Amino acid sequence: MAPVAKKVPVERTHHGDTVIDEYAWLLKKDDPDTIAYLEAENAYTQEMTAHLKDLQDTVFQEIKGRTLETDLSVPIRRDAWWYYSRTEEGKQYGIQCRVAADGDSPPVLRPGEPLPGEQVLLDGNELAGDSPFFSIGTSVASPDGTKLAYSTDYKGDERFTLRFKNLETGELLSDEIPGVFYGGAWSADGSTFFYTTIDDAWRPYRVHRHTLGSDADDVIVYQEDDERFWVGIGLTRSLRYLTLSAGSKITSEVWILDADDPTGEFTVVRPRRTGVEYGLDHAGDHFLVLHNDGAVNFELATAPIADPASWTPLIGHREDTRLLNVDAFKDHVAVHFRRDGLTGIRILPGDGRDPYEIPFPEPLYDVTPSGNAQFETSRLRLGYTSLVTPPSVYEYDLRTGELILLKRKPVLGGYDPADYEQFREWATAEDGTRVPISIVVKKGAIEKGADKTGTDRPAPTVLYGYGSYESSMDPYFSVARLSLLDRGFVFAIAHVRGGGEMGRRWYEDGKLTNKKNTFTDFVACARHLKAVGWSSRIVARGGSAGGLLMGAVANLAPELFAGVVAEVPFVDALNTILDPSLPLTVIEWDEWGDPLHNPEVYAYMKSYSPYENVDGRPYPPILAITSLNDTRVFYHEPAKWIARLRDTAGGGPFLLKTEMGAGHGGRSGRYDAWHEEAFALSWILDRA
């Protein structure tokens, strides 16, 4: 029998509106009643999915059987060393290693055969021990390669302990710093490490300077008092400058310091101005600045070393092209961009040749500069994938124009990309906007219509969506997804507004008081897939802010979906954004609006927040998956949502599964993660 959550009415009044929240008590994480309720929900979910146990085991074995468990990454060159990671069969976590560099080409690695002279930097399995959760927050070698800074988390709350290792002796240094955030940066000489810490709202707000071996308290070199801003610290590829960045959702500010002078004072590049975002990289005798000052899709500028605030356009603004990032090297510049819903790479040669773009053969793909640690190089490392092409590592030779495949992630069991097809469809939203949909299906599972659009034989479909923070759900490959495709499913990604797939305006049209476009776009995509014959029964899936999308579309059009999977879902959005004491709330006001002080924003958010809008109509079966230690979307949001659905709505069933020892990303070990995915996929397959 389904658990029944007790009701403890809490009255809340904002802007003259009074509402009752019966399940607010679930926010008390340490209350025995809360833990007992979550455990009861887990038991009920286990009972309701017991008939899927054999299917779960089968899908897990399929994922495991397609994965080369003993594998290696492509080595990355950092001066005198090639750095790489590898995995071993039967072990949950990766092993970080390096070998001395000999020549410009990466060494050829064979799974299960460590290279002669290999040095193990970190073995995640040894570090994890018997802990049910383990995560590495940062791992970065000093510029001279003699030291390693790394941080670990054993709870899933993303609060790490920072340690240091002497890579020449293997000795673990006595320096130990608890409570740090992700990332960090070394000074040029490796004597000093900069790191960030968080405030009570889980906001990285301080940058500290730690001198190795010193007993003195670490120096706070920067503190950000504006609660909308996060801070971060990095070292340019040239190793010449430390860059300290402070940024909100809409504004940024960068400070720089000569990396040879770690005790010096950071100087600001340009003071923050609301709505202006910029980033900086060092390109030898000048800086490169990517900014949106008067350029909604960003432009690239140069700036003198002596006057980094003076920006001269290098690549001007274009309405059809969103500039994403810039990587500066000694003799060339690589610009990562987005156009027509796809990513691309533009090369600016330093030898006087005209700029050009690197061509790629597939109609749908995602490409990103990745693993480019060397400032002086004639090759550009790229990560590439598509809906049918496994993650691949290429090097582009800037001298010859040759695209060299270094590694493609092995997919065992006879996988052949030619057995699958990928397509791009366009749905029409309520306001006439065309919304792209990326589709992958196994050949033979569907039959294309006579007009070559849609199909004459619809299939069960998983429709995935996100649509927030300008994050793009670009076409990507998934080993686990093959368990759906090989059973005749269609997998589709709805590139809804609020994401960044079609440029900055696409994002702006799906945030603040345009947020409902995200939800209506997803519904339009579902209706389109059914109307043109792609889809029979549709299961919607999304996580985090995509979980908000799931809750909203379940309220908007429950009849469209055969099921909904909402992972760590942000479904109690209004109550969370109303409470500035909760982690990340104030930061989020630039994304969602400020309902605490603005009655119009309050009314708008209340009109779409999933928890506030559950009604008595029949809802599809819903599976909500969350984690007790999540610091981004608290476990109580899906817990409250499922309780209200079960109390108010028809249909269902409504299931809640809580990982009692994990964080926002779920279970940490790869085998544990595969089991978790097999659980979700078996539930989806049961909806077909």
TrEMBL record:
Q: Which InterPro entries match?
A: AB_hydrolase_fold, Pept_S9A_N, Peptidase_S9_cat, Peptidase_S9A, Serine_Peptidase_S9A
User: Superkingdom, according to UniProt?
Assistant: Bacteria
Alphabetized, the UniProt keywords read: Hydrolase, Protease, Serine protease
Ranges for domain Peptidase S9 prolyl oligopeptidase catalytic come to 476-685
Q: Where is the Peptidase S9A N-terminal domain?
A: 4-407
Q: Could you tell me which Pfam families the record lists for this protein?
A: Peptidase_S9, Peptidase_S9_N
Tell me the PANTHER family matching this sequence: PROLYL ENDOPEPTIDASE-LIKE, PROTEASE FAMILY S9A OLIGOPEPTIDASE
Write out the similarity annotation: Belongs to the peptidase S9A family.
Q: What is this protein called?
A: S9 family peptidase
